[in-house]
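Schema walkthrough. Field components (list of strings):
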Amino acid sequence: MSPVAFKSAVDDHVLAELRAIIGDDARVRPDQSSRAFRSRVPAPFPVHRWADHFPDVVILPRTAQEVSEVVKLANRHRIPIVPRAGGTGLSDGAVPLRGGIMIDCKLMNQIHEIDLVDRTVTVGPGINMLKLNEELRKYGVIYPDDPASYPCSLVGGRIGTGGWSLLGSRYGHTRDLVISMEVVLPTGEIVEIAEGGGRKLRKSSTGLTLKQLFTGHQGTLGITTQATLELVPRPEVEFAAFFAFDDYMKAYETTGILTRSGLATLAGVVLFDEWKIAYLRRDDEAYIPQPDSVKAVVAVAMYGRKCEVEPASKEVMRLGRSAGGKYLGDEISAGDWASRHDRYATPLHGRDLDGQAVLMSWHCEDAALNYSVLPQVREEWHAIVARYREQYGIFDDWGMFAYTSGPYKPWADYLVEIDVGIWEQKLNDENWAAWVSCKREIAEVSLKYGGSITACHGATREGDAELVPDEMGSAWPVVKAIKRALDPNNIMNPGKQSLDEAYE
Amino acid sequence: MIFRLGEQTPPPAKRITDTVIERLEHQYEVDPGLMQITPQQDMPVWDSRRIFNARWDHLDWMHAHFADEVLLAGEESETMPEEHS
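Field assembly_structure (string):
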């Protein structure tokens, strides 16, 4: 049996059905600009084949019922559905691979309830965390999901991609912060996904634990239409400290010391390598005047009550220097940390082989890796990018960082990224194929060292997607059985993560 | 159309590193010699200052958004040359 989802069949008859469901022509958009603007994400994109990724029509629903009816229609006509929230992802979760109906959830941006007794907030998937937290501030609470796209990403996308948070070591990542969800399944049924049957419970042992299944599926198992989220006390204080090292291994050692410190207010530790510092020396005002002896940097951030963070900060200052670290100063520490909440505001340019500045898009190839393998992976990843840069001249190595990734347990897991600039204006089929090949080699190194090919971006793009069955190993048949059971017609974001194999 | 900078012309550049210059205090720029493919437009001083100050406004806003108070170590940089600290 071949995969049943196919290049779309959105015709005038289907458009008429969609308009009848939505009841508002302004929220059914088959025009070219509406489709073009929703076809790519910030990750490098095959701009030379942009139109191949247009959806056929964009829908802007306001209710779960509307989403449900559109999904049922898609099943009747075997039309792909692609859910989209902020479109800020760094892989292809929200990029249509086979046209179809795009369900853009931005109008589902309401705050439905703030419960200060049981400490939850219930929202639509189209709300942005920054806007949500502006509202929550008056109550002394915060929803601490903090990606590098904080000002522009939306709750629905965070759930769909299983987002990773800068503050995850302190407060957990998206999947730890979602308490329950209303989900439209690929067949159109509206279901409540929670711990057992309790919409505001953090733990239950009834039935099966479904919540994790519906976070991080990259839009392949349904569409979240409402979410009940965790509220935590708004931090009284923030503390950040950056330490410089003349040698990567000293910085690596210090990262381990800090993450094993047992300090409960520790929100994150970041290790920047030599390539990252060299990149920052080109354009970043904090690093340009630093002496050549600065080869690696470790950043630490803490949040919480002042009575906890203040004494802990003194211990961080001691530990940060224990293996030769030098404090970079208050201005860089506080300022650079604040900029981490909004990396999407950074103008992106790299260097060609002659050192000329050129406009480049930013790709972070991410992986989940253990502490023990960070030095080896770093060497192999940089060697791969150097080879492709030399051969094609359109890539630029922007360095690597390793960021504590274990929720509440910062000591052993890292989100590791190598940032690669890509000169999109030079893309053609050959150069795009080279990029995909480069991605695949990077991912293969992650698997070789017992890691996962992605910690947060998702394995939805070619170069990653074909390795998902390898990584899942003996669990892959289970994954395929779940996909086939929930999405019998393979309409939900088809072509992603090699899940077409479920229908072979 | 020629944009007239007039009194808002930035002062001559001072070289900071092999690839970076400085024309206004604490505002670094990529060496124009490395901007041949994507030339930088002429910027009046007031506009450069506006962008520079907006950056600090943005960072201050982020601090206030995430916590009531920013706790500092209260220590000088141990790496920066004195003239830059």
